[in-house]
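Q: What changes when beta-D-ribofuranose is included in the input?
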Amino acid sequence: MARKIIIDCDPGQDDAVALLLAFASPEELELLGITTVGGNVPLRLTHRNARMMCDIAGKQDVPVFAGCAEPLVRPLQTAEMIHGETGINGIDVFEPDTPLQDEHAVDYIIRTLMDADQDSITLVPTGPLTNIATAIDKQAAILPKIHRIVLMGGAMREGGNRTPSAEFNILVDPEAADIVLRCGRPITQLGLDVTHQVLSTRDRVDRIRALGNPVAEATADMLSFFDRYDTEKYTSKGAPLHDPCTVAWLLKPGLFDGKDCNVSVETQSELTLGHTAVDFWHVTDRPINVHWVYRVDADGFYDFLIERLARFGEDS
Ligand code: BDR
Ligand code: CA
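A: The predicted holo structure follows.
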């Protein structure tokens, strides 16, 4: 039976590819809805971008909701310098046919979980954790309904990508991350330690483009833009494809290695705000709250992504 998931995102080229990978995998994943949050770009663009992905993939029936525009207690920091002013620079933007639902994303999450069986829904956040934390805060009775939270965020060995200590998703809303990390439900966390291994090299982007279907072409176009920033910054051979690691972990966990440990987030310090303190060697007695993923078979990841993106050409 397909695993029921909600993707909570802030597209972002890499969030967009995470959505496409989920769309391509209906046997394993039942995507109940997409909730959006202010993050890489403001909320009005993240929900537009998510709906564009539904149009591009022919998945207009997946409901898309707009959630929190601002973090819990701080002003929003965005990342146009990485993603471009639209959030998905690399493809032309358009007003999608996929409608925006009237319901607020947080109310949708609460309603869906309250109506669900115990331990039945997997949440997949790929942006700041504001929507998820707000839902937990508003209705704690949703917690037993959550099977697992599989999130992109944080860093240990890699250090930060937005400050020396902090990864972007956690830095934008550290108070929300703190609520989620302490929520008591199983969490899988894919931070920069693993996502920086998954690089969109020229060769890999060319293989995606060569699939020749419109979804693969849109993916290649987005990744070609996304590539520019990180290649200059990290002198690596391509930009890390952060967010699709979450969906890939759900679909093919054997590609990844991880370890159960405690992860806590810094919410006070000016210097290290948003830092994820990962107790990898169990040097504290803090409780295990996270399966921390630290390694991936990157070639296997891209082979798998390419195999799934090829599916969009099969029924057209
Ligand atoms: C994360 O921040 C965003 O820029 C990406 O979409 C990803 O979710 C990486 O730090
Ligand atoms: Ca994201």
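Observations recorded in class: The chain has twelve helices and twelve strands.
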